[in-house]
Amino acid sequence: MSALQVNDLSPIFGAEISGLNPRIPIYPATIAALRKLFDEKGLLVFRGLDDDAEFQSHLSGILVGEAEVQDDAAQVSPDRTSHTLVSNRKGGQGSAPFGRLLFHTDMMWAENPFRLISLYGIEVEQPTVPTLFASTVHAWNTLPADLRARVEGRFAIHGRESRTDDYGEVLVTTFGSEQTVELPIARRHPHTGETMLYVDQRSTYGIAGLSSEESDDLMAALHAHLYRPENVVEHQWRQGDLVLWDNLALQHARPNVKLEGPVRVLRKVYAPKAQISRENRPEYSIGR
Ligand SMILES: [Fe+2]
Known about the structure:
The longest helix has 15 residues, at 212-226. The chain is built from five helices and 18 strands. Strand 2 (15-18), helix 1 (28-41) and strand 3 (43-46) form a beta-alpha-beta unit. Helices cover 18% and strands 31% of the residues.
């Protein structure tokens, strides 16, 4: 059995793990240790892995309790593993090829978003653009009493069309049809049972039952709390990094990625596969 070394990325969440050999079977005791770490830390980082799509899918599935995973794209590699690319190179057929991404949970608008996202650095030229993470669980646990009273019993409205900002860098995803859902702001994590502060910067349109002014004001206060520096971990990409995170317990974001800037090609896998939507793919543009 390989011995895992674990180094915390922050006092709140995230761990870098070494000692996992991607070329040997992962023994049950190691699987149990990895699942426990994933539940506790929310974000696992492996550096310098010479991995392939099959290993990434395998490890992603292991962490959510199944052996097989696949993603939401039509791209299926010859080894029958499916994945998407997050790539700023033409012809990469990737998702989110350029622009800044506001903090979000993938498929925030769904009743039941999938639990895990993983990214692997296939080709990463420096200087590159990091991925940022913020903890929805820690945000709820530390929410000041006055803010907690303001969100008590309230629901937020989430939709598929991205919010934008004034910087002119935000990637806007547009789908053929709109779909909104109202969900409790204090939302229970379906696996860990922890309470999450369930609003994000990209997909949350507002707070149900409030005027737009009141809603904007409350959302701004919640965002300021969620994305304060102590609640954010930044991953600086290097080629060979494998990063896996809980899509509900953590939100993710990135600064602006430029098309034809330094090469940034990441392989993306979702898990579990039972929850994956195969709905129509979005169109991408830059907001304002
Ligand atoms: Fe995303």
